[in-house]
Design brief:
Layout lengths: L10 H30 L1 E4 L2 E5 L3 H8 L3 H36 L4 H13 L2 H11 L6 H8 L13 H16 L1 H13 L2 H9 L4 H12 L1 H16 L3 H7 L12 H11 L5 H34 L1
Length: about 300
């Protein structure tokens, strides 16, 4: 018996189904973006909008203190967060996803265990790790002293040389469940005959991963990399919980979102709305621009592998 063909929905009906999502996107994304862009082009006296100043607020960010020194530092720290996420978080996530894909026994249990930190609020995770790393009563230093590594124990969040790396590792620890789930789903959708053919040709397990499995994961790797970049540039809760709004110690954990927060709510400047909106627009332009470049580059790599 031949199956019945389902009639396609009329365009007007399809658009009606999309209307609620489009309305939410317009209200909570497009409108705030347009508002921030408008605010960045005007001067402000508190909450009273002044005259149109064009790009003066952006010029202030690049030429006036403290923004001139804090802006490059914050951008650099966001870049290090992204690099750390790519090296630690995404690499470990891919490795764990591949290992669990090969071992069906207790796979779901370990997926849940690795994903649980990802489901907890980042602010809670940050405060929890600040307690664990406390130099006074934190169990991390206590454990190091207990095993004879007292020289290694130190105020992890009080030293500018280690504070940012703590933020990187804590962020990677929490978010490793995200690439694990995405890569796990991608591995489950791959054609197993490709790897079986490589196995029959005598390829080792490592060779099958590098020359068969990994190239087929390039589209997913590109998606995860772009999302990781966006998350890293928008990082706020964990740096705030570990270093406060000033990015302590000595600005070592400062990021762009903290700079925006300080400028908007902590600077006390009369033109705080205009300058903070300029920070938001600058961050948005960087995120969109780099994300587009990443996407095009990964698509070029994908076409080269096909």
């Amino acid at each position: 018996m031949s199956g019945r063909r389902t009639a396609a929905l009329p365009t007007s009906v399809a658009l009606l189904f999309l209307l609620p999502a489009a309305a939410l996107f317009a209200v909570f994304v497009l409108y705030p973006m347009a508002t921030a862009l408008t605010y960045s082009l005007f001067s402000w006296r508190g909450t009273a909008q002044g005259s149109f100043v064009g790009l003066d607020n952006f010029v202030t960010l690049l030429t006036s203190e403290p923004y001139r020194s804090q802006l490059p530092r914050a951008f650099a720290h966001n870049g290090l967060l992204f690099a750390g996420a790519m090296v630690v978080q995404n690499s470990v996530g891919l490795l764990l996803a591949y290992v669990l894909h090969k071992r069906e026994r207790m796979r779901r249990l370990f997926q849940v265990l690795y994903t649980m930190p990802y489901l907890v609020s980042p602010l809670v995770v940050g405060y929890l790790w600040s307690l664990l790393l406390s130099p006074l009563f934190g169990p991390v230093n206590a454990a190091l002293r207990a095993v004879g590594l007292e020289s290694v124990a130190q105020p992890w969040l009080g030293d500018p040389d280690t504070a940012l790396w703590v933020v990187v590792l804590v962020t990677a620890w929490q978010w490793v469940g995200f690439p694990l789930l995405v890569y796990g789903a991608a591995l489950g959708s791959l054609d197993p005959t490709m790897e079986e053919a490589a196995m029959l040709d005598g390829a080792s397990s490592r060779q099958r991963f590098w020359y068969v499995t990994l190239p087929m994961l390039v589209p997913v790797i590109g998606t995860v990399s772009v999302l990781t970049f966006i998350f890293s540039m928008e990082a706020f809760p964990i740096p705030y919980a570990l270093g406060g709004s000033n990015g302590s110690p000595a600005g070592a954990t400062d990021v762009m979102s903290l700079l925006f927060y300080r400028t908007a709510f902590g600077s006390g400047a009369s033109n705080a709305i205009g300058v903070s909106s300029a920070v938001a627009i600058l961050l948005f332009v960087v995120i969109v621009g780099v994300s587009v470049l990443f996407t095009r580059w990964f698509r070029r790599v994908e076409r080269g592998l096909t």
